[in-house]
């Protein structure tokens, strides 16, 4: 049985692009699968202008800045399994040991020199000095870091296979909350005085 041409054309042109993408509705709830979809998308939802051209503010404790283009900042990547961010590190700047629970990461150094690495689940260290044009990958969920070991500002772009990779910074997880000092001491073997000092620097209590 053949379908009439008029029916085929009617079906094709009545179909919507709803299944092609899901631009995030930032006014709606967000869950593990991301944001719900906006009813109407525009060209502006699929471009992200300006912010990644601008250097981040590195006048902070770690001398580094991260400018993300994740689903919260760039709703067009919602549901697509991709995102990007800019890293700026002053001389001596560091992105502390951290993990991304929902994504693997690829870093591309644009300017300067970075020493970067990750630690596998069997506690083996994979580290490398990276220069302009070099790339490195960090597998999902593994602790990793970047340090500017050069004599000039460093700039890099990092991409993720998630619109919302998530992040947990090890030092902040331990020392910026009210987890009791004796618990941290017992589980990390750090000296109590050092723990209290780090809590004082990073804002933790207990």
TrEMBL record:
Keywords: Apoplast, Disulfide bond, Glycoprotein, Manganese, Metal-binding, Secreted, Signal. Disulfide bonds join 22-37. One of its GO terms (molecular function) is glycosaminoglycan binding. Residues 1-18 form the signal peptide. Pfam families: Cupin_1. It is found in: Secreted, Extracellular space, Apoplast. Oxalate binds at residues 100, 105. Belongs to the germin family. This is Germin-like protein.
């Amino acid at each position: 049985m053949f379908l009439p041409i008029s029916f085929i054309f009617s079906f094709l042109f009545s179909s919507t692009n709803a299944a092609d993408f899901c631009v995030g509705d930032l006014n709606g709830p967000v869950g593990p699968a991301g944001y719900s979809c906006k009813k109407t998308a525009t060209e502006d939802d699929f471009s992200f202008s300006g912010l990644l051209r601008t250097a981040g503010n590195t006048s902070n404790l770690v001398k580094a800045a991260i400018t993300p283009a994740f689903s919260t900042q760039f709703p067009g990547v919602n549901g697509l399994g991709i995102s990007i961010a800019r890293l700026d590190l002053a001389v001596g700047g560091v992105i502390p040991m951290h993990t991304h629970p929902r994504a693997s990461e690829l870093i591309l150094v644009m300017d300067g020199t970075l020493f970067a690495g990750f630690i596998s689940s069997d506690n083996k260290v994979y580290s490398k000095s990276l220069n302009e044009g070099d790339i490195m990958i960090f597998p999902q969920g593994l602790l990793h870091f970047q340090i500017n070991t050069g004599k000039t500002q460093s700039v890099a772009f990092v991409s993720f296979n998630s619109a919302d990779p998530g992040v947990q910074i090890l030092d902040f997880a331990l020392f910026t909350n009210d987890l009791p000092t004796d618990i941290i001491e017992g589980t990390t073997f750090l000296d109590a005085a050092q723990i209290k000092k780090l809590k004082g620097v990073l804002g933790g209590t207990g």
